[in-house]
Amino acid sequence: MLESPTIMKPLRGGMQYKTFGVLAVWAIATLPLIGQEKHPITQREPAGVMGFGGAPWLERAEREAEEAPAKALRTIGISPGMVIADVGSGTGYFSRRMAKLTGPEGKVFAVDIQSRMLEALKGYAAREGITNIETVLSREDDPLLPAGALDLILMVDVYHEFDKPQVMLKKLRAALKPTGRMVLLEYRKEDPNVPIRLEHKMTIAEAKAEVEAEGFRLDRVVDTLPRQHILIFVPGPRKVQ
After folding, report:
1. Would you say 104 and 126 are in contact if contact means Cβ atoms under 8 Å apart?
2. Over residues 12-22, mean pLDDT
């Protein structure tokens, strides 16, 4: 009898990806998590950051069937000319798709703390003829984005890995236009059937409590994807001083 699929995202010590009873372990570089603490509001511990060894998992052929990223982008709404940041872009799976949708008049900042991810992204973009992506090698406490410039910030399965979420959220808010949006895709912790390790999932309540405390307002939740919440935030008052 075949086991139920269980996907284990790449962690500090290696990646485990288990599907239909077959277990593969991908060795990846350890990414130090210095000063990692529980979130003071939710007591949630940040998850380990995916290393470059997990890059093939980001580009896996079955991702569309498993997670419906094209549907996610249609739901979010990408218009020609938009200025977008893909924070935690990895290999640029979403950056490249958004760059095509926003067109030559628009721009995508692909932001990641790992230079090897960004180099891989550049290679994919070059092969696809995409020229409107600017890569940004960020810091764990600063996305290094221009102030007040962004129509949209997208984080796909990324926010839960932030080691310094409060500081990052403040700087992300500063990078948004007053009419901008910040969208989180996070695996649904409320659903035990979503085959992802628990520390890589979030509930709506966790995300709302943590993000709204830093100057955002949860505007809308869309739960039409197979595994992830789409959490759409807009600028709002900061609740924590």
Report:
1. no
2. 34
